[in-house]
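#lab-general

N.A. 3:47 PM
ok so I finally got the sequence cleaned up, no stray characters, all 144 residues accounted for. can someone with queue access submit it? mine expired

B.Y. 3:52 PM
send it over

N.A. 3:53 PM
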Amino acid sequence: MERIEYCTVHSRKKNRYYVKIVKNAKCEGCKACGFGRKNHLILPAVSKVDCEAGDSVAVAMPEKQVKGSYLYLYLLPLIFLFAGLVIPISVGEKAMFLGGAIGLIASIPVMYLIERLYRRRKKYLPVIVGKLSNTEKPLEGENI
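B.Y. 4:20 PM
back already:
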């Protein structure tokens, strides 16, 4: 099931739209997407309808596709940590500790690059599915 969020088009660059999603009651306690620091997020999106900056839109969030992509955020640092621990195993404990730390530090840019690749693929981006008039406000949980 797709999750529909209602937000505003912030800007447009070529065929990529940027939508501004405001924190709502469903977001309390989660902090998965960075709402802990600010009250809104600006996300890249693709569109099935023509819209401009300032338009209110309905956005389908790609939950099913994205759920599997979070796996690398947990497994990749562990793989690098264990590789860093195992490679210098014959040298001693200090080398193993240093190797584990280097492995964890090396996993950060790799995760960043993978995240950038995911962000460029269209199937992982939110999709603008409908344009709303600025005067009407959809009911909570209402689908288009």
